[in-house]
Amino acid sequence: MNKQKVITIYKVLGLELIKRGINFLKTAFHLKLKQTTRTSIQLLLLNKEVPSSKILFADGTYFFTDIETMRDIIKFDWTDKAKYVKAWNDCDDFALRFKSHMQERYGITAVGLARSVDLKDIETGKHIAYHRANVFIADEDNIMKFWFLEPQTDKIVEIKNYDELINLTGWLNKLNLFDF
After folding, report:
1. Residue 29 CA to chain centroid, in angstroms?
2. Which residue of 10, 70, 81, 85 could cross-link 138, Cys pair, CB 3.0 to 4.6 Å?
3. Which contiguous run of DSSP H or E holds residue 92?
């Protein structure tokens, strides 16, 4: 067999393995997606005191699941396994990858980018850098809630108020802009 045929077989087989793997994952998590609207998400975020100018939407309808299923999906997602490489595979790449994985693999679209997160030193409160992470909608006890995810570590916390400082990884995260 010539080299080109082998390469073609690898491409076809690789694509088939990915498609079957996604089907295995969907089956394993027994997903029951729930549907919500842009307006419902806006109201949820406004109740968290998020200024409407800080929320961007691409769609009018979004799909989500419960927090326990999300925690399980996040546990088995491999976004956090990637090696951090400054300016090549850094925070924005982790956040974009996680958002894409959720939509592509599970149809979960109520995942957004937390953009321009202000990282602050935990002791001094001084600005360190800007950061990108994820936010998502998931329900808990049938109540829709807003969550912050650090995709590099899989750490999650419920966002109770837009102005709170979130400590997940040894620095403080001050939220800014959300892009769904």
Report:
1. 17
2. 70
3. helix 91-101
Q: Say how many CA atoms lie within 13 Å of 71 toward its Cβ.
A: 9
Q: Are strands 61-66 and 127-140 parallel, antiparallel or unpaired?
A: parallel
pLDDT > 80? residue 169: no
Cα distances from 133 to residues 39, 78, 156, in angstroms, run: 23, 15, 11
- Give the model's pLDDT for residue 98: 98
CA-to-CA dists, residue 141 to 65, 68, 168, angstroms: 11, 10, 24
What average pLDDT does the chain have? 94
Rounded to the nearest angstrom, the gap between the alpha carbon of residue 89 and the centroid of all alpha carbons in its chain is 16
Question: Residue 136 is encoded by which pair of tokens?
Answer: 């998502």
What is the H or E stretch that residue 56 is in? Answer: strand 55-56
Residue 109 in contact with residue 59, Cβ under 8 Å? yes
The pTM of the full predicted model, rounded to 2 decimals, is 0.91
C-alpha dist (Å) from residue 128 to 10, 22, 84, 173: 45, 38, 18, 10
CA–CA dist 173, 152 (Å, integer):
14
Residue 122 has pLDDT above 80, yes or no: yes
Task: Average the pLDDT over 119-139 and give the result.
Answer: 95
* Bridge partners of residue 156, in order along the sequence: 149
